[in-house]
Specification:
56 residues; four-stranded antiparallel β-sheet; Conjugal transfer protein TrbB; globular; 4 strands
């Protein structure tokens, strides 16, 4: 998921990238990158999602 926000001047910026993770019968959003903090410890989740979708 891509989270876009507006600043006070109305300009948009990408503020967060998250992946959806299934936990039992629910889905939760896990932040893997944040504009102010960079990559998170959950970043390997994004790598796995991308690798699963790449042709062999």
């Amino acid at each position: 998921m891509l989270h876009v926000e507006r600043n006070r001047a109305g300009r948009r910026r990408l503020s967060e990238i998250a992946v959806l993770q299934r936990v039992q019968e629910r889905v939760r959003s896990v932040t893997v990158w944040h504009a102010d903090r960079g990559m998170t410890e959950a970043a390997p989740l994004l790598r796995r999602v991308l690798e699963d979708r790449m042709p062999s």
